[in-house]
Amino acid sequence: MLIKRGKLYEVPPSDGRDIKDLFLYAVERGIGQIVDSKGIPKNKWTPNTLANAISEIDHPDASVDLRTVQYWFDSKNKRNVSTTNCRWLAQVFGCGSPDEISDWQTALLSARRVFIEGRGLDGDQSINGHNEGHEVLDTSIQPPKVRRRRQIPARLEALFADPVTPSVVVWFWLTGILFLAALLGVLSVTYTTPDGTNKQVGYLWSPSWIIHDLVLLPFFLMTVSRTINFWKTDTRMMFLNDERRSPQEGWLDKVSSLSMLLWLAIAISVFFVFLLQWVGGYLTPILRNELGNTAVSWPIIILARPDIMSVGAALALSGIYIFFAALVFFFLNAGFVFLYAVWSDFSDLFKQNNNVIRADDAAKMRFVGVRLVENIFLGTILALWISTSIKL
């Protein structure tokens, strides 16, 4: 037995076992489990822990039905293991090391053929089939909780890594508000204050919308996208020890470790920026027809010019306006989370390689760090400009 990446590893036996015997052999010995300081596995394999371990594999298709795993653990059950699931099991028992994963995948597929030959299965249960014997997956069983926890961060990472979609969302929303403002006649509106002063408000008199939403925010989102793709796609591979490893191996783990910050950004955007600000600053004054200390702006112009629009139109306009403000807040904060994830991942991998790399490789890695710092600095400046334009 050996310790590979903090996990218990053992060379798969080559004594002609079938897939059921080989699987039970691996789980009973705790192969692939994290070990303590004495080299003893901290936990035992169970259907739940094994399903969770498979769901944590850094691959978008890595998942398995819990009932399927339960069939594997049942020694009396005579259902085969699909080739795809053999691949996931090899990842777990191989402790994430490429050579060991290859050894276990070879052993598992060989044991699978032994199982098929032993049962004399007919053509519809061929080696290349993906069904586990006659098993029909029970879709009512939910995937492991760990898998669900990783879905939102992974989808947000894919969204922010896209150089086009977030900016298109911003431009689409901004265009929608522009047409709504034009339809309601609040592109430019004049009203008279209690002291007799004429003032102008309206969409066209809010240059920050043009500056930070049409220009600065899309540039910020593109900077975040460029930073993510430069790191995870173009340069991260040089920091990995083995060329056969995926350049994105471990990246989603880093993103998932910051999921609390992403959820916090979502919560603040929804509950504080949208709900509380809309209810306190727009919904309540409009329904009470009392301006109070609220500053007159074009979404709330009905309090100074009730002839402009109806109460329903004012509520809809202000709701869409504040929702977009919440969306901007989320994009800014989530963007910074991903910029931090990139830098944290770079820092961790650089420290791991700092003592074993050659001088020329170290220079390349430092160049990557400089590029990342430049992108993060640019993103920070853009965010400061956005915040300043909103305040002005």
Topology overview:
Layout: E1 2-4, E2 7-9, H1 19-29, H2 47-55, H3 66-73, H4 83-93, H5 98-119, H6 145-161, H7 165-184, E3 189-192, E4 198-201, H8 207-235, H9 251-257, H10 259-288, H11 311-353, H12 359-391
Antiparallel strand pairs: 1-2, 3-4
Helix pairs in contact: 1-5, 2-3, 4-5, 6-9, 7-8, 7-11, 8-11, 8-12, 10-11, 11-12
Summarize the model shown.
It is built from twelve helices and four strands, in the order E-E-H-H-H-H-H-H-H-E-E-H-H-H-H-H.
Structure description:
The chain is mainly alpha-helical. Helix content is 61%, strand content 4%. The longest helix is centred in the last third of the chain and has 43 residues. The termini are far apart. The relative contact order is 0.09.
